[in-house]
């Protein structure tokens, strides 16, 4: 299957070609800017180094998307989802986690309100 052509970085004044939105250099800057100015401090605290370790361990033990498996598809999991969100009193316990592919995680997050919920 042919690849999409590369396009210029979205950073104003940068002419490097990239497959994503930003070149490597500006992708790191954009991620740092997002963490500093847009991400809620309470969320940053909940999803720190400890969460990354829990997530990596869970993905290693459950490498397939649990949602796709129910419908008979085999898809590699890329994300770990909290069944009951931490903001609603959920925990990082294994019985509150499920491994999902990106599309299933986006679908569940959009359906439940997730990131776009008003506080």
Give the neighbour order of strands across the main sheet: 1-2
| First-last Cα distance | 44 Å
The radius of gyration is 17 Å
> Main sheet?
2 strands, antiparallel
CATH topology (fold) name of the domain at 41-116: DNA Binding (I), subunit A
Q: How helix-rich are the residues, as a percent range?
A: 40-55%
Number of strands: 4
> How confident overall, as mean pLDDT?
85
Label the overall shape: globular
Brief description of this entry?
This protein is mostly helical.
What would you say this structure looks like, in words?
- The mean pLDDT is 85.
- The relative contact order is 0.09.
- The chain has 119 residues and is mainly alpha-helical.
- It is 41% helix and 10% strand.
- A two-stranded antiparallel sheet has the order 1-2. It has a two-stranded antiparallel ribbon with strand order 3-4.
- The chain has a domain at 41-116: DNA Binding (I), subunit A.
- The protein has helices spanning 24-37, 41-46, 49-61, 66-70, 102-112, and strands at residues 7-8, 17-18, 79-82, 97-100.
- The protein is built from five helices and four strands, in the order ββααααββα.
Give the topology, please.
Layout lengths: L6 E2 L8 E2 L5 H14 L3 H6 L2 H13 L4 H5 L8 E4 L14 E4 L1 H11 L7
Which features does this protein show?
single chain; about 120 residues; mainly alpha; DNA Binding (I), subunit A; two-stranded antiparallel sheet; two-stranded antiparallel ribbon; 5 helices; about 40% helix; globular
């Amino acid at each position: 299957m042919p690849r999409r052509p590369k396009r210029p970085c979205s950073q104003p004044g940068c002419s490097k070609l990239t497959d994503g939105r930003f070149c490597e250099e500006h992708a790191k800057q954009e991620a740092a800017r997002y963490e500093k100015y847009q991400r809620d401090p309470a969320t940053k605290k909940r999803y720190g180094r400890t969460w990354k370790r829990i997530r990596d361990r869970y993905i290693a033990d459950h490498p397939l998307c649990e949602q796709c498996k129910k419908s008979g598809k085999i898809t590699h999991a890329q994300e770990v989802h909290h069944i009951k969100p931490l903001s609603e009193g959920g925990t990082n316990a294994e019985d509150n986690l499920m491994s999902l592919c990106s599309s299933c995680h986006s679908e569940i997050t959009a359906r439940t309100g997730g990131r776009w919920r008003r506080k």
